[in-house]
Write a structure and sequence with these properties.
It is a single chain. The chain is an alpha+beta fold. It has one domain: Holliday junction resolvase RusA (60s Ribosomal Protein L30, Chain: A), CATH 3.30.1330.70. 26% of the residues lie in helices and 31% in strands. The strands form two sheets. It has a four-stranded mixed sheet with strand order 1-6-4-5, covered by helices on one side. A two-stranded antiparallel sheet has the order 2-3. The longest helix is centred in the first third of the chain and has 18 residues.
């Protein structure tokens, strides 16, 4: 597989914790709707990028560039500082929860299973166009990053 790059548009969403609800016969576990919806967007972007190719079979390296929206309530000066990287996003969603949502959504699409991801480079920044740039590189038969 050659390098795959694509952008997941929209505000990044972290993987929500499983929820439980009582039923007549016990407890039912379910994934929050916001997580299910975001994972569907990620899966669609991944399928488009794969263009019908089979999922990678070996180890892969993944780079995630996560761009979260700049709060509209901030002053113009602070918004500009955030846009150029002088203010970092230290609010939710957590970077690892975004990673988990993306990796789970790409199972069976870009790779068989996310256990194949052996190297990860990730960053979270503010930006005017929220989304996540995903770059996937095969490692089998190459030197590790």
């Amino acid at each position: 597989m050659a390098e795959i790059q694509f952008v997941v548009p929209g505000v990044p969403v972290g993987k929500g914790r499983p929820r439980a609800s009582k039923t007549k016969v016990g407890v039912r576990m379910y994934t929050p709707a916001k997580t299910v919806s975001y994972e569907a967007v990620v899966a669609y972007a991944g399928r488009q990028a794969m263009a019908g190719r089979d999922p990678e079979q070996g180890a892969v390296a993944v780079a995630l560039t996560i761009v979260v929206p700049i709060p509209a309530s901030w002053s113009g000066a602070k918004q500009e500082r955030a846009a150029v990287g002088e203010v970092m996003p230290t609010t939710k969603p957590d970077i690892d929860n975004i990673e988990k949502a993306i990796f789970d959504a790409l199972n069976g699409i870009c790779w068989r299973d996310d256990v194949q991801v052996t190297d990860v480079l990730k960053s979270k920044r503010y930006g005017r166009q929220p989304g996540v740039r995903v770059t996937i590189n095969p490692l089998e038969g190459t030197k590790a990053c």
